Amino acid sequence: MTLVTREGCVHCAQTKELLKKIQPEYPDLVVEEIDMTTPQGQELISKYGIMSSPGIIINGELFSMGGTTEKELRAELAKLIKK
């Protein structure tokens, strides 16, 4: 999972706290955080059409932008585990 964030973003902070909370339940989940103001972040914004932060990319596909709920994130992770 890639989390595209920016400093001072309230939704980014909320999403990071959510991930910190649920990550122990998903030991294989690797989260990479990339600042959207860096060249790598700008590349991801362009590639995935991220319009608001945070952008959440899971397995090479844009899952969410502008934040997500615990329920939505858990549902997506459950789908991936079933595959």
Quick tags:
83 residues, alpha+beta, Glutaredoxin, 3 helices, 4 strands, 43% helix, globular
- Helical percentage: 40-55%
The percent range for strand residues is 15-25%
Q: Major sheet: size, sense and barrel closure?
A: 4 strands, mixed
Mean pLDDT over the residues: 95
Count the E strands.
4
Number of helices: 3
Write the layout of secondary structure elements.
Elements: E1 2-5, H1 10-22, E2 32-35, H2 39-48, E3 55-58, E4 61-65, H3 70-82
Parallel strand pairs: 1-2
Antiparallel strand pairs: 1-3, 3-4
Structure characterization notes:
- This protein is of the alpha+beta class and 83 residues long.
- The protein has a single domain (2-82), classed as Glutaredoxin, CATH 3.40.30.10.
- It has 3 helices and 4 strands; from the N terminus they run βαβαββα.
- A 4-stranded mixed beta sheet has the order 2-1-3-4, covered by helices on one side.
- The relative contact order is 0.22.
- The model has no long low-confidence stretch (mean pLDDT 95).
Short recap of the structure:
The chain has 83 residues and is α+β, with helices and mostly antiparallel strands. It has three helices and four strands. Helices cover 43% and strands 20% of the residues.
